[in-house]
Amino acid sequence: MSEEKYIPKSKIAQWFDSRLPLLSMAHHLREYPTPKNLNYWWTFGGILTFCLITQIITGVVLAMHYVAHADLAFESIEHIMRNVNYGWLLRYVHANGASMFFLAVYIHIFRALFYGSYKAPREMIWIIGMIIYILMMATAFMGYVLPWGQMSFWGATVITNLFSAIPLVGEGIVTWLWGGFAVDNPTLTRFFSLHYFLPFLIVGLVVLHIWALHIPGNNNPIGIDIKQRSKDTVPFSPYIAVKDLYALLIFLIIFAGIVFFVPNILGHTDNYIKANPMVTPSHIVPEWYLLPFYAILRAVPSKLGGVIAMFGSLFILIILPWLDTSKVRSAVFRPLYKIFFWILVADVLALGYLGAMVPEGWYLFFGRLATIYYFVHFLLIMPILGFKEKTLPLPTSISEPVLDGKN
Amino acid sequence: MNASYLLLTTIIILLVAFLYLSWIFVSNEIENKDKSKTNRRDFLYTASYTLGAVGVAAAAWPLIHQMNPDASVKALSTTEVDISTIELGKSITVLWRGKPVFIRRRTQEEIVEAQNIKLSDLKDPQDDKDRVKKPEWLVMLGVCTHLGCVPLGNKGDYKGWFCPCHGSHYDTSGRIRKGPAPTNLEIPKYEFIDNNTIKIG
């Protein structure tokens, strides 16, 4: 990065910084040149960092009261809700925090899709981001098992059974995951351990995600390459920092509204019934943020096929930088892609809706249609569009369209 | 709970205000320019930082308070004990709030011995009358005031209790007589509900 060498003012700071350049790093983060036209869709990175920290803090605190044992887990959650000082608040923040985390991450991902943030030279940011996303889903799933309610138990049973679709070794893998012949105490304790561990892995990946971002610098709404430190950039602090903070406050108001007024709106009532391995609830649904993938899983009329389609839908996201053949990043200058982007948004929302419905009749039909379209978008439309689409002329700088080329 | 919360918030506000004012002072000294007077922007900064500090304190409090005794622990803060089966000269140990409580039915000899001591001879002077509600019944926490071990009964140089950890001797009223412990064995809050029942806590 084109940045002049930072030298601290005081002698002590120089001594420290030449041995451990934390001050240089803080300076870099403050002065980091950011495109001046970043809009509010760019504030979700900061919001996501906040979500991760909130989840870790409330999670560590909840673990002080939670008991990871099949006989005691459910009661310990009720203990947190009724007895522990502010336990209800901590648990509702943690549970709804997961939903808010996913809401923010979906906006963050679709932002990247719209403005082409995954394209060269930002492929590594995108790939690390996708790994974070997959780990988030694993962490959230295992966290949902911990209260040991009916949905926890049967969700765990269904999701772990996905692996039984693997030919030959499938059954062995499932038994290994369970530590027994059904979801039981060994499953719960290992899920608790991993649910505690994975967020710290995510923290490490977030550091890499930001590191990879700071090499080429931020993409921007018009998607053109800009010179670092030019009239097109502003220092991160205070310009972007204040904008991020403002967006975070708005986000927090919505978050607090859910926590204080409708804390159970995203939960499922069946999870307030203790796990019973003898009775499956009449209708099993995962948490809302996993529904699109659940719809894809059920759309394929074959056990192995469904599992492959579901994991495939994630895998094609990882290789997206090479599926998109267009040289132009931002959808602002891609009239056709812009249309297909919104169709994809509608398609994923539809998959989410269909994932919550019983897969019969028209629901199953549209579920299959939406699944096919999802793959068509990434495997056919994206590669072909790059060659066929007539893109609009790109400005040479961020200032140009505004200042009419006078800058 | 609310008092500590208010205290904490006030401290943080004062701290932020202090840091801010000292920063203003220092920066004015250094720059010493025409903008050395406090202006509206300074007011906005102070107001925002203060509000931010209050917000952070409000959010931090539940995270701190959750470690205090919860409702289920507080619900166990009284224990009722049936003392009708304790014979003269015997004692029982009951658990109250996770700590042992000694209940001893003292003999006349022990009572006399406890009452007839000169207060000036004691390390932590306290009259036996102030340590019991009925002279026959001695109720006290079985936790050595030195470092928290449980003293053994009918032991030691004063026929009271003896702590095996570091050798503190207590007399028949549970007062410290010899050894490293600084104070007498603590008397918990208790009351006689009737002649046969004590409520501790």
What does this entry look like structurally?
The complex is a heterodimer of chains A (407) and B (201). The mean pLDDT of chain A is 93. Chain A has 407 residues and is mostly helical. Chain A has helices at residues 11-19, 22-31, 44-62, 73-82, 87-115, 123-145, 150-161, 170-178, 185-214, 236-261, 291-299, 303-318, 320-323, 335-355, 361-388, 400-403; strands at residues 33-35, 233-235. Helix content of chain A is 64%, strand content 1%. Chain A is built from 16 helices and two strands. Chain A has a single domain, classed as Cytochrome Bc1 Complex, Chain C (Up-down Bundle), CATH 1.20.810. In chain A, helix 6 (123-145) packs across helix 7 and helix 11 (291-299) crosses helix 12 (303-318). Chain A is globular and about 70 Å long. The two termini of chain A are 24 Å apart. By secondary structure, chain B is α+β, with helices and mostly antiparallel strands. Chain B has two domains: 3-68; 74-200, Rieske [2Fe-2S] iron-sulphur domain (Rieske Iron-sulfur Protein, 3-layer Sandwich). In chain B, 34% of the residues lie in helices and 21% in strands. Chain B contains four helices and ten strands; from the N terminus they run αααβββαβββββββ. Chain B has helices at 2-31, 40-65, 71-74, 108-115, and strands at residues 79-82, 91-96, 99-105, 137-141, 152-153, 161-163, 168-170, 176-178, 190-194, 197-200. In chain B, the strands form three sheets. In chain B, strands 5-6-7-8 form a four-stranded antiparallel sheet, with no helix packed on it. A three-stranded antiparallel sheet of chain B has the order 1-10-9, with no helix packed on it. A three-stranded antiparallel sheet of chain B has the order 2-3-4, with no helix packed on it. Chain B is elongated, with a radius of gyration of 28 Å. The two termini of chain B are 20 Å apart. Chains A and B meet through helix 3 and helix 5 of A and helix 2 and helix 3 of B.
